[in-house]
Amino acid sequence: MAEQFAFDSVAFLQLLNQLRRRFDEVVSHAPLSFEQIDGDLVQPQCAHKHTERGEKNSERNIDTVALVEEPKAIFERIDARVAELTEELFSTTHWAWMICVASRGLDSRFIDDARAFLSYCSSMVRKFGMGAWLYDLLNDATMSMLLHRPSEHMPVVQTPYESIVDVIRRRHRTVDQRFGTVREREQCIRDHTRHAHALAAYCTLKWGTAGTHRSTMAQLLLNEPGLGMCMLREDKTVRDLGACPDMRFRRVIKYVRQLRVQADFEYAKDALHSDDMPNVESHAPEVQDMDKRYLYDARKLVEAYRALWPRHTRSTETVLGEIEERNALPTQPLWENTVYLRDLAMSLMGSSMASKLIGGFERRDMEDFEKGVRLLKAMCSRVQELGLPFLPILVIEQLHQSMMEIAHEDFPSIEIPDYEQLDCEHDDEHELDVSEYSGDAVEDMAAMVLQRVFPEEDEANANMAMALLRVRMGDYAQVVMELFGDDEEGLDDDSVDDFPDSGGRGAADFDVIA
């Protein structure tokens, strides 16, 4: 019997109603307070500037005081309850940023945008359920990608680290102009699509029925967005609203699941009879199995790709298309099956960080492929040293540091965090550099956790992934601590409070990937 899956729309709507009431309360009082324009970081500036011809510029309709402000102050002045509810509903997506910025009451159009989005969410969920709402959001983002135009639900706020005066000015431009040049607009559209799928994955984990279906859907929304969106079509309401009723995508999901079962059997056989398994005896008993499997899979993946390099292989997309269209299943052995190798790479690194490894092999681009191998080696080195549950912390904090370094160039008051004591020194070959993957690394690590970090603990596994999507590393560490047990050395309450600055390390000199 198929597993029943549904969203808890009632709980979502209750929280949404709380946010709408609090937002209106905060906005209604904002114009009565001079706190918005007091302080060292905020100075009023004339909202209407004149050109040399004496005419007002295109931003003459700004009806509030434009502010010159350090971006760090944007979120320091947000009402705590609004910020809490917004993050719980929409995670750390740019819709959450838009609502937080709008709640300051600096510009009426921002307020209108936020209210319109909240009303849209409430109306869709109330009438058709969360599945239909999420599908509509994803469809809107997908059409934006196809048409190369900003979508209806695409917020102007694209990053939490930008000047509020720039955001306000962009909001008063036309839709096609407010996101910058053609290249900048294309990047904003890609980011919008990524945020839409991250929000769908987060809502699936938070309000979806517990079970393997929830985990599978969230994984696909993060790693295989097309398939994840298709899974939402299993909701009859979504199909009744006009979504394509074609369910052949299930063939792909079923086939990949069969490959994973086959891989589990081969791993179990090698674990019993092979003398060349990764050594993780120094690791905590709770993580030895997952650490060994991660290191084993990483090594076998690279070996398989190198063995297939001189041989002709068909495009994985072509093979998957044939599976979906005609149920034409490949006949290659497991470690020569590019569909399995692609799925394995994404389970180890996430779709974005595995893109150079997979794409380099598909195109036979040695430079990109070796970049992907080096990143996988660096990740395996951290797993060998600390254990798999700590890998997301290292990756996300390294990403955070690189983002702060970039923001510091434009806004010197932003402090650059120092995570050197968290991650020990490595040579260039094992340097963990994720700076080019921007926010994608967060979704990548959440997808990896869903598949590999305590997957048998359904609720804890979902909570860990949600904590990563919200970039709440303390919450993530707390869940890990509970799974390790209170008596585990290095994982007491004090270490969680100070996370990620503390934590034990295990000695390791095992080179996982040749």
Automatic annotation (TrEMBL):
Superkingdom assignment: Bacteria
Q: Where is the composition biased (Acidic residues)?
A: 488-500
Renumbered to this chain, region (Disordered) spans 488-514
The protein depicted here goes by the name: Riboflavin deaminase
